[in-house]
Amino acid sequence: MQKVEHGTAMMMSLRKQWRDIPPVLWVLLVMAIASYPLTEAFGRTGGFSLQFLANVVERSVTLAIVAVGQTFVILVGSIDLSVAFVISLAAVMASYFMQGNATMILIAVPAVLLMGAGIGWINGFLVTRGRVNPLIATLGMGLIIQGILSTSFQNFAGSVPQSYQIIAYGSLFGIPNSFFLLLAVAFGAAFVLRKTRFGAHIYAVGGNSEAARLSGINTDRIMRRAHLIAGLLAALAGLFLTSRLGSGAPWVGPDGIYDLESIAAVVIGGTILAGGRGGVFGTIIGVLIFGLIDSLFNQLGIDPYLKQVLRGLIIIFAVAAYSMRSKDEVA
Amino acid sequence: MSKQPQTSSLLTPVWSRLSRMEPIYIILAAIVLAIVLSNPIYADYGPMMQLLRRASPLIVLAVGQLFVIVSGGFDLSVGSLITFIVLLSALVLNTHPEQVYACIALCLAIGIAAGSLNGLVVSLLKVPSIIATLGMLLAYRGAGLYLSGGSARGNLPDTFRAFGRETVYGFPIALIVVIVFGVFAAWILHGTNYGRQLFAVGTNPRAARLSGVNVTMVRVVAFMFSAVSAVVAAILLGGFSGVSTAVGNGYELQAISAAVLGGAVLLGGRGSVPAVIAGAIALHALFTLLNIWGFPKPMRDAVQGIIIISAVAYSAWRR
Q1: Domains (ranges, CATH) in chain A?
Q2: CA-CA distances (angstroms) from residue A225 to A20, A74, A123, A198?
């Protein structure tokens, strides 16, 4: 008797875990399976393989880092539209500081990360103290960065040393370094969100800011820290992108549409835009879906401009798949 | 104490009227004054008209954007819709240069369709307008470049370009378009039942719905208005800048900045057409002023960023 009950309880918990798997994972699985015959038939480079999947992940690392930062601000009920410009700024600054000199890495990397965190903090300050709507505060901040950056730099600025490109192109035990970076960021963020007091406060503030404030949480400080993390991770993404590209230019961020795609990935990953519910791993899967779509388009040889059209529509309808069930008024 | 009110009672109406007036008119006057002081040639009729003519696409766009802002949303798709319309018209008119008016009708129809698409995605699929219209921004940009093969192709005939370029008795046609559009928009927003419903939707959509407003319809029409304003702006811009793949770049944010400068409150419920027109002229005049002072062009973005942040912070602080 006891044993049977134990068995059913296990079945129950298994079924519960089964249901807890975010729906995006199923989408990803179906897409990966469906893409197999497609790429086999139309693929220009030998179709579907482990190499292809590794490629998908590698191309997604930059977006994944930004999107993890975006998850923090969206969870707390805010948003960051300046990330694409922070990426540009980080990329340009990194290659400008380094100028191909390997000894400068140790100075440039912390400086750029500090700058990203600072911009994030200012965003948070504008939202909390200035009471500026986060969309406007971060959009305005992005414009300011963009304006100053393109005034100062018209083209690729400097370059990074060979040793710096190991981050993007090197590998350890046959696994690309970028995988480790991705895993570190994802698990680090998941740890902060699930196991720390700060993480709990983020969910509390995003779920109900007023209730969180009344229960003694300094909501403004939580908001500023979440923005700081978004800025920091955007700068990290910029540093990684520079390692891939070898140099930074003012347009690398906006060209990658990192602002829109990071938000879309977060939403597709099951984090609700109003805040308070969601997590990092959903976001990572959302990013991988975008990466898979992108690589598929490349393999199928779709016109780059047409690809842009499809990308825009896919983002809208992917977000719609989640938002249309909501009964709230949306503007 | 009892004597004091006598003197102040004379001044009070003036002062209270001044303090209630939208600050944008004072800002506009200050910027225009600064332009004239920096370069006296702008005091003449011709250069001043030139300035206004150059501002006309932004005025039209800002007024269209105002409708969406009052409804509580954003329309970020207008900039690339402009580019799409210009590239499409150039291709169509290259093969059929005589069909200018048919082409304009086609463009307006595309505008109405694009606006309703935005509006339906926002109100039925509940996608936040900032994501929906950013997605459409990508789509229109891609579609325009796909049509033209990635570079500016085709030509716009003079009849098409007349709207942006020509003058009637020394008065630019573009400004006539602006005046007609502005008066029509002011009437719709401030004089009709639809305008009142739009303000109601922007202030509190749920309350508006419960009191019998067709929120979906009101929103869709607002987005339509914005998209049509983009088409009109595209016709004017095609007139004076010709065909290019970057013709509409950045206009979406300029339109929002102009509306915010004109006192429109983001996320809905407040705004007026005349003040937003003043905001658009002020923004364009400010860019001209920066140009006169020798600021590099990309600095405009930074100035715009500072404007929208401080305008929103100011209105939050005033409340």
Answers
A1: 52-323 (1.10.3470)
A2: 29, 13, 10, 9
Amino acid at A217: I
B66's tokens:
């105002």
Q: How far apart are CA A330 and CA A133, in angstroms?
A: 16
Neighbours of A44 (CB within 10 A): 10
The token duo for B237 is 């811009």
Is pLDDT above 50 for A73?
yes
- Among all residues of chain A, which has the CA nearest to that of B206? A329
The pLDDT of residue B2: 46
Beta strands A175-176 and A171-172, pairing class: antiparallel
Q: How close A313 gets to chain B, by Cα (Å)?
A: 6
Structure tokens at A85: 């410009």
- CB neighbour list of residue B257: distance below 8 Å, 6 or more residues apart: B283, B304, B307, B308
Q: State residue B249's pLDDT score.
A: 84
Residue recorded with tokens 């319309």: B85
* CA A323 to mean position of chain CA atoms: 20
Structural domain tally of chain B? 1
Structural domain boundaries enclosing B81: 52-249+266-271
Residue B122 belongs to some domain of the structure: yes
Residue B290 within a domain: no
Is residue B314 situated within a structural domain? Answer: no
Condensed to tens digits (0 to 9), the pLDDT of residues B261-301 reads: 888 887 778 889 999 999 999 999 999 998 888 888 888 88
Name the residue in chain B with its Cα closest to that of A149: B298
Q: Considering only A233-237, B6-10, B236-240, B285-289, which range has the smallest mean pLDDT?
A: B6-10
The closest CB to that of B146, out of A126, A146, A305, belongs to: A305
Least CB-CB distance to B308: which of A131, A139, A329? A139
Which residue of A lies nearest to B71 if distances are taken between CA atoms? A331
Is residue B156 a part of any domain in this protein?
yes
List chain B residues with CB under 8 Å of A257: 138
For B175, phi then psi, to 5°, come to -70, -30
Q: Is residue A195 classed exposed, middle or buried when 0-12, 13-18 and 19+ CB atoms within 10 A define those classes?
A: exposed
Lowest mean pLDDT among A293-307, B8-22, B168-182, B289-303: B8-22
CB contact (8 A) between residue B127 and residue A323:
yes
